[in-house]
User: Which sequence fits this backbone?
């Protein structure tokens, strides 16, 4: 009887493998490719401070310790602004490097212009520490 079970068991195993039921080998780089695709982003609600570093550079502090650099069209008076409204261009509230937004500043010495901005990068802690005090958000 053992002889008749062996061919049946072997046939079932071959059928399972041929039909795609056999487990596929795991990819060694599957997790690494997902991590490489993660982009540093922030939402408008997470921004709690900003500083201008001239008429075309703005630094935003998002969450607790993340700082993002934005390049803007010339925004007269942005150095003196004490409030900032950020409106992302696009359907998402999230902004990542390469994304564009419109900025409106207000405060004494500002002209209330709307400026166009682009998120350039997220700064490393070393880059943030290297910023002059006047540019640190």
Assistant:
């Amino acid at each position: 009887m053992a002889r008749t079970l062996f061919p049946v068991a072997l046939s079932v195993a071959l059928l399972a493998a041929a039909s795609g039921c056999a487990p596929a080998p795991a990819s060694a780089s599957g997790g690494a490719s997902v991590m490489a695709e993660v982009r540093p982003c922030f939402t408008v609600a997470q921004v709690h401070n900003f500083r201008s570093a001239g008429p075309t550079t703005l630094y935003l502090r998002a969450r607790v310790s993340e700082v993002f650099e934005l390049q803007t069209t010339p925004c007269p008076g942005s150095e003196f602004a004490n409030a900032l409204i950020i409106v992302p261009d696009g359907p998402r509230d999230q902004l990542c490097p390469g994304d564009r937004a419109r900025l409106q500043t207000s405060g004494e010495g500002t002209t209330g212009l709307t400026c166009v901005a682009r998120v350039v990068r997220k700064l490393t802690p070393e880059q943030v520490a290297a910023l002059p005090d006047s540019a640190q958000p």
Notes: The beta strands are 42-43, 47-52, 57-62, 66-72, 83-88, 94-95, 100-106, 114-123. Confidence is low (pLDDT under 50) at residues 1-36. The CA atoms of residues 4 and 10 lie 10 Å apart.
